[in-house]
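Self-study notes.
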Amino acid sequence: MLTPLFYNVYWFEDYILLLEHKDALYAANIFIDYFSSIDRIDEYLRRIKLGRIAEMGCSLPGMGPEEEMFSDFSMHPQDMEFKILEPDNEKFMRYLEITTSHAIESSVPGKSLRWMIKEKNSDKIVGFIRIGSPTINSKPRNDFLGKPLDTQSPEVMKRFNDSCIMGFIIVPTQPFGFNYLGGKLLAGLCCSHEMRERMNQKYNMNVCMFETTSLYGSTKSSSQYDGMKPFLRYKGNTDSNFAPLLNDDNYRKLNEWFINKNNGELLVHENASSRKLKTQTKMASIIKSSLKNTDPDAYKKFCKSFDDAKNITEKKRQYISDYGFSNVKEYMNLETNVLTKKENFDRFNTEGIVEWWKNKASSRYETLKTENRLRTEPELWTLNSDIDIIR
């Protein structure tokens, strides 16, 4: 049954609007113009990031978050000790925004744990971690578990939801990351029993699996997660079938426009996971449905712009940790209710992971010093930033 909202625009049971021809062309052209201006993923990221930075307020000299970032690069990794803080979301996002190149969202539905890692002696920040509920499907994970999660029984899906967490933000401050392999330290902490036990305590879970992906697959020839066995192992590449998201200004403008066309109703529930991605996907579906039978040429042009844009994004490398358990696959598939520890289970303690990192970081640090390649200037995002884009 169709319920009329206004002239020639309807709300379907499958949540699809039909727009008037001129409105469909207007919305389509916003996407087409934006996608046509992007050639490479790093250009896209820089544009998004600089837009975010422009919206941030300025701090008084000597009083901004940049003053709290690690900066003593005469310190040897063997002399470092670390502490884990759980800051509120506002502080976490404010400090992270000037550190990462990624266009991060301030709030995420589902499970969430934020860690800010400080070096104890200097009391300075070396990195940020945000853990959350995993995505419902992933090709490497499907291969590992045996079949796609959304084809499993409700009982298996519940077991998975109660047992798996995902790293969405694993970002070292720079150049701590470059000089000391800071990304490996943070990723190792995600694989620690301390992380597992913290999530168990907070959400009544029984965590036995951690997963994450490289930030962007083919932009870099390597990932900060490479060389992390036994803590983290590469499991394959994800499928990439998403166009880049609109930048903040275009997204806000178009989202408000669609809400107005829909009598003030959101296209996607405000608590939905990946809401911006799902909202953009819904916008595209509405535009396609509105143009398909009324303007075949415009429909083909719009579809081609999305297909071309998908080629900008990349397959990501996926990595999985089993926290030192030998039967994670069987446990996830309800073949057993008891997790079995491997011989290296105790290596996943925080102390063991930090010691493992110190050996890796020492070799890296000493090599950079010998080759006179040690970086000593803080790398933070400003409107004039010209820094390594992927982090």
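Second protein, same conventions, sequence then structure:
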Amino acid sequence: MANNIRFQPMGKTYLANVSTSNVEVAINADSPCNQLRIHNDGQTNAHIRFSSTTGSAAAIATTSTPAYGVVMHPGTVEIFTTPQSANSSVASCYVSAISTGAIQLWMTPGEGT
């Protein structure tokens, strides 16, 4: 569960090369946790979606069409709370992402702010 400590990594860091096609990564933590620290190391927005099951693709929203995809701006670092059933030593957290250009997302499971 999230708390008021500094972010504590609790697993390996994953790298996703994201472009105009959806990319999905299964994140596994070393011990139960429900947060991910994500760094968008690109020049365009990332649109990301979290799921406890595979196959839930992120999408880019438009003015007339809402979509499942949280916007993450270029060069930013965010800590997200993931689905409760994900990110434990038993289950995976699936992160799907899409962008309008080539970017890299660095993702680390853990806990804290």
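Instructor comment on the second fold: The two ends are 11 Å apart (CA to CA).
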